Amino acid sequence: MWLYLLGLLGAAFVLIAAGLALRGGGGSRIAADGGLLADRGSSYGKAFGLSRWLTTVDHKDIGLLYIALGVVAGLWGGVDAMMIRTELATPPTDVWDTRTYNELFTTHGITMLFLFVTPVFTGIANYFIPLLVDADDMAFPRINAIAFWLLPPSLVFIRAGLVTEVLAKVLEAFGVVVEALFALEPPGIGWTLYTPMSIEALNPQIDVFLLGLHLSGIATTIGAINIIVTIFTERGEEVGWENLDILSWALLTMSGLILFSFPVLGSVLVMLLMDRNFGTTFFLAEGGGALLYQHLFWFFGHPEVYVIVLPAFGLISFMLPRLVGRRLFGFKFLVYSTLAIGVLSFGVWAHHMFATGMDPRIRGSFMAVSIAIAVPSAVKVFNWIATLWYSRIRLSAPAIFLLGGIAVFIVGGVTGVFLASVPVDMVFHGTYYVVGHFHLILMGIIPFTMFAASYYWYPLLTGRMYDPRLARIQAVLTVVGGFVAFVPMLVVGADGLPRRYAQYPPEYALLNQVSTLGAYLIGAGVVLWVYNVFQSLRVGPEVEDADVWNLKETGQFSREWQWFERRLEQRRGEPSDDD
Amino acid sequence: MALADENRTRRVLGAIAGGVAGMAAMSIAFALLEVETRYEVGIFAGIARFVMVPGNLALGFLVFVLFGAIVWPLLFVFVEEHIPGGPDPGRRGLAFATVLWVLFMLTAAGNVTGATLLIYATLTLVGHLAYGFILGAVYGHVRPDFSLAEVRERRNPR
Ligand code: HEM
Ligand SMILES: [Cu+2]
Fold it and tell me: Is A421 in the pocket of ligand 1 (CB under 6 A)?
């Protein structure tokens, strides 16, 4: 058995080596020049097949790789979510035991935040920023590739418990028992990894998991630096700060937030690892204490929620006017509000800690800033609604998603303002109300805008058109599912049901079942989306006119579509194209 | 199945290739699900019941793979013309796999009940649909007398 595996591994290495040798053998060596591509244009002369994807430094390919990895992680985290909701379909703990339940919500949260949302948005940034700012590629193409390739190993590290167990089970079926592979269990300590629990838990997988998380943080930071440098230094002649598009502004702010918050997460994780393994006492009573951990974690954690929501805002502001045939209302204020959120988001972290017994004066100041941060968010909502005023709303699938997203965000945002008020938070902290609040935003707006973007740019990404009817069905199903799944959580939470328990009193059964139904609706929507994406790749009609969304009519035929138009023309001119 | 002789081999081989690809996807997904759901849905025990060797997981899985890779694809080739959803074999594969899933649920679900049944049915349905779609798509790709251009739809944006 082991020989067989070793043989397989050896064969794989030989193949890779052969591929690399073939590629390198072309005579054109690339000099070490700090990441600039010495001797070729942006997207021509690529390798073919698998080695194209393994060795690419083209921003579009890397973007697609990011998106693919994000989708895989998202589906995985989605299965976790379905399992959570299945457990909660009935009041007692009858499907999975409490330990498994704890593992589920931990891996669900971490997978979604770090391995789904951030990679997908980084992928979108990679694909579209160079097109939108008229750059040849990202500023550091090879560092870009490195940043991506750090993610698959961090995915494996973070979810190692399951991967090793599958391996162990497969080996066991062939009669080989490897005890070590069974030792890693998925962590069950919540995505916030609060001390002292995260220090005391014995499960060795937690260490692997922390390393994986650290790795993903490094990857994210590298990617952010690349985005910042690209927007600052690689803009084409016609793209100045005054006409930089709204999506690039959002992604630039996101990258700034990453740059200042992820290093803090990195330090926290290292300190946690040291506390777990080397007897340091950063987060024990004698050292800084559990409160220090919470401060550091949320100093990262709150900016993180804006890291993942700002690109979604940017996508709405970018696509909405184009889909409803009207200019974006108050462009400047949307940019200012984005920057304001970026700055303010570093001053609100302790609103996650109101219930810890901090000094009331500190609580008061954090409450004030937290309520203030709602203002720029409200400015955005106002501008979106003003954009819709007198517009021609056509209910295409992306438009349904964007309108649904705005509606959900209003509910999610307003509940956040309530939570920012200390007395309200003292009651609701630790209940399902909080889960409802952040899911209305996290599930509502973020995947909704991603779905919208996937349809909006599907013709550009694939050269084919998706199935619009199926897409509309998916959009309605998902938006309805979102409300059905998360509004009941606000209700049970306001009634006092605590979060993070596998069982609950029977009087909450009905609302929880409604919520589970919503989750399954969302799941059905995701299946339709996957089908539409793959089936349209096969049978979707080829796009002949680059102006799929009638953007020329309103003068919004932006750079990425112009690039697409050039490409279509090229392809018509010379049938043997590169890809 | 009225087939010209030169086509028959390629159609059969195409179907088997599709079956192997579909089975590969489905078994990886099932293995992950089985662990992810902490053995609570008992997919492999169900599979063993499905192929009539209850209790023997290894043998059951082997028979399951053989069926998925060879027997169902051959059946698919024979009945293809009568499956709704055509002419695209990918969509026909979906319909075909749905029937298989119903059979699977009738035999394999065993004594799974309540909320567990909910997720069991959902996840195995998705697995079967993926299997059927891959089976049909690969088969259509290999089949010499079928061209995707026939089924490409004319769609308007939106
Ligand atoms: C209008 C702006 C917002 C305000 C005033 C706000 C306020 C709050 C407050 C006070 C809490 C702590 C509740 C508690 O634990 O007792 C909270 C939790 C949370 N919020 Fe927000 N929020 C806002 C927007 C957002 C956005 C845009 C996101 C994500 C994209 C988000 C995601 C979260 C998450 C994930 C938690 C829970 C963290 C946890 O304990 O696991 N919030 N929010
Ligand atoms: Cu916060």
Answer: no
Nearest Cα to A296, choosing from A349, A218, A249, A257? A349
Cβ of A539 within 8 Å of Cβ of B153? The answer is yes
ipTM score = 0.90
What is the rounded distance in angstroms from the CA atom of residue A166 to the CA atom of residue A297? Answer: 32
- Of A107-111, A186-190, B1-5, least confident by mean pLDDT is B1-5
Of B115, B122, B155, the CB nearest to A523: B122
* Residue pointed to by tokens 């990886």: B28
Asked if A414 and A278 touch (Cβ cutoff 8 Å), the reply is: no
Whether the CB of A80 is below 8 Å from some CB of chain B: the reply is: yes
The label of the residue with tokens 């979106």 reads: A384
Alpha-carbon distance of A231 to A130, in angstroms, equals: 8
Distance, CA of A519 to CA of B1 (rounded, Å): 44
Measured between CB atoms, does B62 come within 8 Å of chain A?
A: no
Give yes or no for residue A380 CB within 6 A of ligand 1: no
A374, HSE (Cβ side, Cα atoms, 13 Å): 18
Nearest residue to A302 via CA among A247, A360, A260, A272: A260
Residue pLDDT, tens place only, A243-279: 999 999 999 999 999 999 999 999 999 999 999 999 8
Q: In this structure, are residues A342 and A256 in contact, taking their beta carbons and an 8 Å threshold?
A: yes
Distance between CA atoms of residues A342 and A322, nearest Å: 25
Write out chain A residues lying below 8 Å of B61, CB-based: 173
Task: State how far Cα A437 lies from the chain centre.
Answer: 18
Using DSSP's 3-state secondary structure scheme, residue A431 falls into strand
Q: Do B133 and A534 touch (CB under 8 A)?
A: yes
Nearest to A162 among B35, B61, B152 (CB): B35
How many helices (H) does chain A have, and how many strands (E)?
24, 0
Q: How far is A168 from chain B (nearest CA, A)?
A: 11
pLDDT digits (tens, 9 = 90+) for A553-577: 889 999 999 999 999 998 887 554 4
Q: What pLDDT score does A415 carry?
A: 94
Contact of A53 with A501, CB cutoff 8 Å: no
Q: Tell me which residue in A523, A539, A548 faces B88 most closely, judged by beta carbons.
A: A539
